[in-house]
Amino acid sequence: MNILENVELAPLTTFEIGGPAKYFIEVKNSDQLGAALDYAQTRKLPFFVLAGGSNVLIADTGFNGVVIKIAFKELKVDTLNSQVYAEAGSSLMDCIFESAGAGLSGMESMYGIPGSVGGAARGNAGAFGAEMVDVVKEITALNIETREIKTFANEDCFFSYRNSFFKKNTDWIIISVLLQLEKETGGSALKRAEEILALRNERQIQNIQSAGSFFMNPSVNQSIQDSFRKEKGTEARERRVPAGWLIEKSGFKGVCENNVCTGKRSPNYIINSGGASASSVRNLAESIRNKVLEKFAIELHEEVMQVGF
Ligand SMILES: Cc1cc2nc3c(=O)[nH]c(=O)nc-3n(C[C@H](O)[C@H](O)[C@H](O)COP(=O)(O)OP(=O)(O)OC[C@H]3O[C@@H](n4cnc5c(N)ncnc54)[C@H](O)[C@@H]3O)c2cc1C
């Protein structure tokens, strides 16, 4: 096992922000994952699991413990059963590209979401009407205390909006995901995936130094749902309205301070416009949160995982 010291984390995240990890171990299978956990636990060091780094904000001072980077990436497409076996560290985009390319449909609306399959399953990632809950058949995970390896059926993952059993129970680290897709009918899944990617580019939610939507879409009262419907002509989903809509109405669309901006098209994206610090991101996020609270009496909660603060 190769234990590195003082490894810069910023280049391993899409925000491109943050200081170094005191210790850094890349793991390529579940045995190595167990060994990395042994290393941290016997020394009583805090540890953090990093995969694609597309949903994290690392502190400017870095992480004073062990960062365990999930680097097992095997992907197997089984066209006969319309299933895909993906190790946790495999890229979600590769997974969608390969499955859609093999004529399997179900994930193409998620094409463009950066990061790993494991990270996506943990956060029930989703876009344009599809979420991981729709395609996960089983998740296999390792318990950090007992080292038990257990397979969870979809219903045991307790998926909900950007949430799952694994997000709430950090004792379990996802090792692999089995996806159940369908044979494409009426059009090419790959073509639809590419159309989605073009749409994401147009909405400026692709290839930017950010961690995606910074805040979760909050659940709101009927009167705010009604205002949203009147203004946008669409229903709030599951009583939630887009955080970006509230942020825009609070005057934070395309606002910049200290090299940190909110998106011009998607204001719930907090973007590093070059050389931003984590503390500047947190300051802007705090101003947004306070303003939305003051204006709408709604408390926004972060979707982005903050590490080392
Ligand atoms: C430009 C951009 C666009 C985005 N668009 C979307 C979008 O449309 N929809 C959407 O849902 N998200 C979106 N995101 C957010 C992000 O891509 C997803 O949340 C992604 O699924 C995170 O996966 P990751 O591998 O990068 O996780 P990381 O950022 O590495 O980790 C995130 C969290 O998951 C935990 N974790 C990671 N792997 C595992 C594992 N194997 N087991 C247990 N815990 C684990 C980490 O400890 C951490 O707490 C976007 C991000 C960016 C930068």
Topology:
Layout: E1 3-8, E2 20-27, H1 30-42, E3 47-50, E4 56-58, E5 63-70, E6 75-78, E7 83-87, H2 92-101, E8 104-105, H3 117-122, E9 126-127, E10 130-131, E11 136-143, E12 149-153, H4 165-168, E13 172-180, E14 182-183, H5 189-202, H6 222-232, H7 243-249, E15 256-257, E16 260-262, E17 270-272, H8 278-296, E18 305-307
Bound molecules: flavin-adenine dinucleotide (FAD).
What do you see in this structure?
It is globular, with a radius of gyration of 20 Å. It has helices at residues 30-42, 92-101, 117-122, 165-168, 189-202, 222-232, 243-249, 278-296; strands spanning 3-8, 20-27, 47-50, 56-58, 63-70, 75-78, 83-87, 104-105, 126-127, 130-131, 136-143, 149-153, 172-180, 182-183, 256-257, 260-262, 270-272, 305-307. The protein folds into three domains: 3-70, 2-Layer Sandwich (Uridine Diphospho-n-acetylenolpyruvylglucosamine Reductase, domain 2); 75-193, Uridine Diphospho-n-acetylenolpyruvylglucosamine Reductase, domain 3; 204-307, Uridine Diphospho-n-acetylenolpyruvylglucosamine Reductase, domain 1 (Alpha-Beta Complex), CATH 3.90.78. The mean pLDDT is 96. The strands form six sheets. It has a five-stranded antiparallel beta sheet. A four-stranded mixed beta sheet has the order 1-2-5-3, with helices on one face. It has a three-stranded antiparallel beta sheet with strand order 15-16-17, with helices on one face. It has 309 residues and is of the alpha+beta class.
